[in-house]
C-alpha cells in the first residue's frame, strides 16, 4: 500500500490526480449533463485521462450546453433520454449491465440520482449502506481530511454509521492510507446519556474491538478540536491514538456534516472532492455549483476506488 505524502506541494488535490493517472480511465455515465459546468467537468476528466464519458440525458439540451461551452461532442457517446429522471434510470441500467464502471452526477438534484440507485431489484444496492465521503484539502493542514456522511444519510442509525465508517475506511485504503484514524464526532468527549452521538460513538468503538468494523483505528466521542488538534486534546487530558491525528471525521448527521464541509470550503479555502460508496459502482457526486477542479478530483477518487475494488476482489 502506498504511503500518502504529507507536504505543502500536495495541496489542491494534485496528489489524487497523480495517483489516478496510473490507472485506466473509467467508462462513466454522466447523468443529465445539460449545463456548462457539468459538461465541462466531464470533458476535462476525459482529457485528463480519468474518464471515458457516456453522456446520458436529453440530447438537444446536451448539445445546447456544448454549444454554449464551445465543446465539440464529436467522438462522445450520447444516450438520449426524455428528462432527468429517465437519465438517472438509464445510467443505473447501464451500470447494472456492466456497460459503464461509474456514474457522475450532472445537472440534476442528488435525490433524483440516488432515488434511481436505491430501487429494489433494478438499482445499484449492495449489502453495504450507501454513503458519501468528502475528501478535503486544506491549505496549511498536513494531510487530506475525510468527512462522512454529509450528503446521503440524514439521521443515520448505529447500523448505518457502521457502514458509513467502513465505506470511508475502504476509500482511505484506496488512496494509500493503510490504517486510517477515525474520529467519531460529538459536542463533548465523554459518553453522555442525553447526547445520542456520544452513545453511538462508544458503541461503534466497541464494534471495532469486536471486528464488526475493520481496517482503521476508531475513537470517540471526540469534539472537532480534539480530533484535529493534538494541542487541544492534550489540554483536555485526552489520551488517544486518534485525537489530534484524525484522518476521517464521522459526523452525527447530515446537517452537521454539510455545514462543516461547506464552512471549510467557503471560509478556509479548502478544495473538496466527493464520492458515494457502497453501491455496485462508484458515484461521483458533486454540487451543481462545483467547478471543474472539484469534478476532476472527484473523478480521480472514483478511479482509485474502482481499481481498489478490483484488486481487493482478487
Provide a descriptive summary of the structure in words.
This protein is 41% helix and 18% strand. The chain has 314 residues and is of the alpha/beta class. An eleven-stranded mixed β-sheet has the order 3-2-1-4-11-10-5-6-9-7-8, sandwiched between helices. Strand 1, helix 2 and strand 2 form a beta-alpha-beta unit. Helix 2 packs across helix 11.
Give the SSE layout:
Blueprint: H1 14-20, E1 26-31, H2 36-47, E2 51-57, H3 59-69, E3 77-80, H4 84-96, E4 102-105, H5 110-117, E5 131-137, E6 145-148, H6 158-174, E7 181-185, H7 196-209, E8 217-222, H8 224-228, H9 230-235, E9 248-250, H10 254-267, E10 271-277, E11 283-284, H11 292-313
Parallel strand pairs: 1-2, 1-4, 2-3, 4-11, 6-9, 7-8, 7-9
Antiparallel strand pairs: 5-6, 5-10, 10-11
Helix pairs in contact: 1-11, 2-11, 4-5, 6-11
Amino acid at each position: 500500500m502506498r504511503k500518502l505524502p504529507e507536504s505543502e506541494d500536495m495541496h489542491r488535490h494534485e496528489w489524487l490526480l497523480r495517483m489516478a493517472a496510473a490507472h485506466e480511465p473509467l467508462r462513466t455515465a454522466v447523468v443529465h449533463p445539460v449545463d456548462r459546468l457539468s459538461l465541462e467537468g466531464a470533458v476535462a476528466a476525459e482529457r485528463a485521462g480519468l474518464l471515458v464519458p457516456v453522456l446520458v440525458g436529453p440530447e438537444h439540451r446536451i448539445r445546447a450546453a456544448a454549444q454554449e461551452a464551445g465543446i465539440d461532442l464529436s467522438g462522445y457517446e450520447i444516450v438520449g433520454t426524455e428528462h432527468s429522471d429517465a437519465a438517472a434510470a438509464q445510467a443505473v441500467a447501464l451500470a447494472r449491465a456492466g456497460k459503464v464502471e461509474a456514474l457522475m452526477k450532472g445537472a440534476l438534484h442528488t435525490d433524483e440520482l440516488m432515488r434511481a440507485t436505491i430501487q429494489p431489484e433494478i438499482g445499484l444496492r449492495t449489502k453495504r449502506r450507501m454513503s458519501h465521503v468528502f475528501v478535503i484539502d486544506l491549505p496549511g493542514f498536513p494531510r487530506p481530511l475525510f468527512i462522512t456522511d454529509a450528503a446521503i444519510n440524514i439521521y443515520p442509525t448505529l447500523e448505518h454509521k457502521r457502514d458509513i465508517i467502513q465505506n470511508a475506511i475502504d476509500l482511505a485504503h484506496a488512496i494509500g492510507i493503510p490504517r486510517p484514524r477515525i474520529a467519531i464526532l460529538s459536542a463533548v468527549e465523554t459518553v453522555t446519556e442525553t447526547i445520542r452521538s456520544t452513545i453511538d460513538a462508544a458503541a461503534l468503538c466497541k464494534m471495532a474491538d469486536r471486528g464488526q468494523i475493520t481496517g482503521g483505528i476508531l475513537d470517540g466521542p471526540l469534539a472537532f478540536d480534539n480530533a484535529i488538534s493534538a494541542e487541544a486534546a492534550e489540554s483536555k487530558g485526552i489520551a488517544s491514538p486518534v485525537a489530534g491525528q484524525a484522518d476521517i471525521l464521522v459526523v452525527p448527521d447530515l446537517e452537521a456534516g454539510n455545514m462543516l464541509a461547506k464552512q471549510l470550503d467557503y471560509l478556509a479555502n479548502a478544495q473538496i472532492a466527493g464520492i458515494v460508496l457502497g453501491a455496485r459502482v462508484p458515484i461521483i457526486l458533486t454540487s451543481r455549483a462545483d467547478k471543474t477542479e472539484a469534478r476532476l478530483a472527484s473523478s480521480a477518487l472514483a478511479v482509485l476506488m474502482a481499481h481498489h475494488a478490483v484488486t481487493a476482489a482478487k
